[in-house]
Amino acid sequence: MLYLNGQFVRIEDAKISALDRGCLFGDGVYEVIPVYSRQPFRLAEHIRRLEASLAAIGLSNPHHAEEWMALIAQVISLQDYEDQSIYLHVTRGATGERDFPFPANTTPTVLINPTPLVVPSAEVKATGVRAISHADFRWLRCDIKSLNLLPAVLLRQAAKQAGCAECVMFRNGMLTEGAASNIFVVKNGIIATPPKDHLILPGITYDVVIELAQQHQLPLEARRISEAEVRSADELWMTSSTKEVLGIIELDGKPVGNGCVGPLARQMDSYYYEFKQSIMRKPTSC
Ligand code: PMP
Questions:
Q1: How far is the CA of 148 from the centre of ligand 1 (A)?
Q2: With 176 labelled, which of 106, 124, 131, 155 sits at a CA distance of 20 to 30 A?
Q3: Taking the domains of the chain in order of start, what are their residue ranges?
Q4: Separation of alpha carbons 41 and 85, rounded Å
């Protein structure tokens, strides 16, 4: 069951207008919220980012934070699986015509669609993944989680064709992020990641990783990182709500560091795992 515009319906019964501005222009924003044992992870932060994205595109928020939380809780409870990936989007709705400026008095389209959460297996975490690189040809408001995902579609397709899992992007010789993840580098035991600005999405996992580094006294810097630094890094990681903390072992066919998932990637992934287990998983009864 999914939620569409005030109703809980089966996916085959969910209908939206062919003239929805989400379809015509990608005129909307979205979130993906991981749910572990029916508990949404960092929900308040996801809702805050949604609010920021909506405000940035001048779309008034159809729900207060408490209403969003209640709707998401209902969607979670309607599924017969425990770990979920909640895709949520809000578009500027549908009008009778295809006209660029904001229409007057349209009702936003709200879709909340859950699917089973699939995170990388222990084997993939241990082996790591390969990546390609590409110029970051996206717009200059990458901080908005916009529905305009054509760049990510093209970049992930290029990665897939090269047998890789991600595409690491550079703009003017500096690291930005992955097609659908944030990127961290490690050199000589120091972790670094680009700062939060309009060139990257402020990842929820990015924040968790920074908090965990602080808690465990791992040195971490949020600063500009040159392409040369990425190419000579000891470790490279990608982070996202569904990939969690995943080591990149090869970039453009060349090994990163010694070509294995590095010790800090493994350390951070285990802190992330413990953190997730301690706050999200129900205690198991035996
Ligand atoms: N950057 C981009 C471009 C993304 O699409 C994503 C995943 N949605 C991320 C970073 C990671 O964000 P999060 O940790 O909130 O999933």
A1: 14
A2: 124
A3: 2-116, 122-277
A4: 10
Tokens of 91: 């578009």
244 lines ligand 1 (CB under 6 A): no
**34 in contact with ligand 1, CB cutoff 6 A:** no
Topology (CATH level 3) of domain 2-116:
D-amino Acid Aminotransferase; Chain A, domain 1 (3.30.470)
The Å distance, Cα 38 to ligand 1 centre, comes to 21
Name which of 92, 17, 94 is nearest 57 in CA terms.
92
Coil, strand or helix at 155: helix
* Closest residue by CA, ligand 1 atom 5: 180
Catalytic residue numbers read: 145
Measured between alpha carbons, how far is 23 from 19 in angstroms, rounded to an integer? 7
Are 224 and 195 contacting, i.e. CB atoms less than 8 angstroms apart?
Answer: yes
222 with 171: CB under 8 angstroms?
no
What confidence tens digit (pLDDT) does each residue in 54-97 have?
Answer: 999 999 999 999 999 999 999 999 999 999 999 999 999 998 89
Architecture of domain 122-277: Alpha-Beta Barrel (3.20)
Instruction: Look at the pTM and tell me if it is higher than 0.85.
Output: yes
Amino acid 134 reads: H
What are the backbone angles phi and psi of residue 203, rounded to the nearest 5°?
-70, 145
Mean pLDDT by groups of 10 residues along the chain of 286 residues: 96 96 97 96 97 98 98 97 97 94 94 97 97 98 98 98 98 98 98 98 98 98 98 98 97 98 97 90 56
